[in-house]
Amino acid sequence: GPIVNGTNDKFEIKSSPNKTTLYVKDLDINKDMGIYQCRGTNEMGSETDKIQLRVRSQLAALWPFLGIVAEVIILITIIFIYEKRRKPDEIND
Fold it and tell me: Which residue positions does the secretion signal occupy (predicted)?
């Protein structure tokens, strides 16, 4: 349905001369995803366009960081195992 300012606490539309922004409060990853149609109207006429809203989870930004942490842990483990295996060989010589 159409989103009009003040009719729903979930959506807020803020307009300035250059742009209009739609704010979605308490975003629901499942319910709020989808196609949104925007209609702009002025003296010259009216135009509509559609955008697709994709919602990422809050953890999405953490995945690259967690990947790096996992790589570091794996590297340290490999170095540690390699060092432990190398020392007994030197004693035998």
Answer: none
